[in-house]
Write a structure and sequence with these properties.
Elements (H helix, E strand, L loop, with lengths): L1 E8 L2 E8 L7 H11 L18 E4 L2 E4 L9 E4 L6 E3 L2 E2 L2 H9 L15 H12 L5 H4 L2 H5 L6 H11 L27 H5 L6 H14 L16
Helix pairs in contact: 2-6, 3-6, 6-8
Bound molecules: iron/sulfur cluster (SF4) (2 copies) and FE2/S2 (inorganic) cluster.
Length: 230
């Protein structure tokens, strides 16, 4: 099968084509095979098991985890959208972690542990399932429209902190999210449809946003659907 790869180096993109025996393999296995014949190709991967979130590339135009995407025909591979390229399929991820820091999205536990009931664990499990792969960010239009928007991955992680009763700030933790302009989310659900872990970021954002509006921390933004032309 043919594998076309959009490569990047020294400020320029170029396409390169490889012929590989890749039918039924994962994209990551194919990249590793290509690396054996062309050691100059750069890409990221660690766990090879859909856990670390580092291997995202565009496969035939869609953002996917390379390690759990099997292919059976010719493919094109590209670096992800939005994130600045570094080399070939490797991009700069730092902006994802910067937003987590800006929203202080980390767990500050109570001095003594409280056991959680199964339904309480269930409520936050989608948030803890997030592997910070960034796919939701790469498909999010709000990021393009508002550079201060906190990113769907940030809010997905924040949900698990805010609604876990072992978090010592309780719902006051919502105040930390105010600088992240959650109200810039258009609720298009691109993030939800593309998340490889079914975390449903849009739903978690909606719940966080509703709670922030109810507490007077933010005002809901009127969405601009001007293209409907009423
Ligand atoms: S919410 Fe889903 S798509 Fe977004 S970073 Fe987490 S696992 Fe990836
Ligand atoms: S639902 Fe919100 S966070 Fe998700 S992709 Fe759309 S604008 Fe971005
Ligand atoms: S290599 Fe870890 S998620 Fe793909």
């Amino acid at each position: 099968m043919k594998v076309k790869i959009k490569r990047y180096s020294d400020g320029d993109f170029r396409w390169e084509e490889y012929e590989v025996d890749g039918e039924g393999k994962t994209v990551l296995e194919i990249l590793q095979n290509i690396k054996e014949i062309d050691p100059t190709l750069s890409f990221r991967a660690m766990c090879r098991a859909g856990i670390c979130g580092t291997c995202v590339v565009k496969v035939n135009g869609e953002h996917k985890l390379a390690c759990n995407t099997r292919v059976y025909d010719d493919i094109t591979l590209e670096p992800v959208d939005v994130a600045p390229p570094i080399k070939d399929l490797v991009v700069e991820h730092e902006f994802i972690y910067e937003k987590l820091k800006k929203g202080r999205v980390w767990f500050e536990p109570l001095p003594t542990n409280i056991p959680l009931k199964p339904d309480e664990l269930k409520n936050t499990e989608k948030s803890w399932d997030c592997i910070l792969c960034g796919i939701c960010n790469y498909v999010c239009p709000a990021i393009q429209a508002d550079k201060n928007f906190g990113l769907p991955s940030t809010f997905t992680k924040a949900y698990g902190v805010v609604f876990d009763k072992r978090n010592k700030k309780g719902l006051d933790k919502l105040k930390d999210l105010v600088p992240l302009n959650i109200q810039s989310c258009t609720h298009c659900k691109n993030c939800t449809f593309s998340c490889p872990k079914d975390c449903n970021p849009e739903l978690l954002i909606k719940i966080l946003e509703n709670n922030m509006v109810q507490r007077g921390l933010i005002q809901r933004k009127e969405q601009d659907f001007g293209f409907l032309g009423f």
